[in-house]
Amino acid sequence: MPQHQEPRRVLYVEDDDDIREIARLALEVVGEFEVMLCASGEDAVAGAAAFNPDIILLDVMMPGMDGPSTLTALRRQPALEKIPVAFMTAKIQPREIAAYKAMGAVEVIAKPFDPMTLSEQIRTIWHTARA
After folding, report:
1. With helix as H, strand as E and coil as C, how does the chain read?
2. pTM of the model
3. Across 48-72, average pLDDT
4. What crossing angle do the helices spanning 41-51 and 67-75 adopt, rounded to 10°?
5. pLDDT tens digits, one per residue of 94-103
6. pLDDT tens profile 26-57
7. Burial class of residue 4 in the structure, from the number of CB atoms within 10 Å of its CB (0-12 exposed, 13-18 middle, 19+ buried)
């Protein structure tokens, strides 16, 4: 795990261009994170290890590789197997949240998310995962 006290690098996987851009602004401008954006699970699996993220945000429903299958593929890479992951989805019923956590997600962030508080949510999730 990274040795620094705060997360710095966020990998965000989202197939919707508009949501991805809102998240980029929220994370880079408000949160001052270094952000890698991926439009698909396949892109994330190909580039995540080289980016070396502190935390990974995954959209659940995407064409091709969905969030859960992307998480499974990322976990197969030794450099990524312990990186905290949060799913982002509009489906936030307690049973669904429990299922996502059973897959290995630390937390589930509801969509639509608040761009002004997203960075703080990510920091909280990261600290919880490290505790």
Report:
1. CCCCCCCCEEEEECCCHHHHHHHHHHHHHHCCCEEEEECCHHHHHHHHHHHCCCEEEEECCCCCCCHHHHHHHHHCCHHHCCCCEEEEECCCCHHHHHHHHHCCCCEEEECCCCCCCHHHHHHHHHHHHHC
2. 0.94
3. 96
4. 30
5. 999 999 999 9
6. 999 999 999 999 999 999 999 999 999 999 99
7. exposed
Judge contact between 4 and 95, C-beta under 8 A: no
Amino acid of residue 68: P
Token pair for 86 = 């949060």
Check residue 104 and give left, alpha or beta (phi > 0: left; psi -120 to 50: alpha): left
In this structure, is the dihedral angle defined by the CA atoms of residues 17, 21, 22 and 28, taken in order, positive or negative?
A: positive
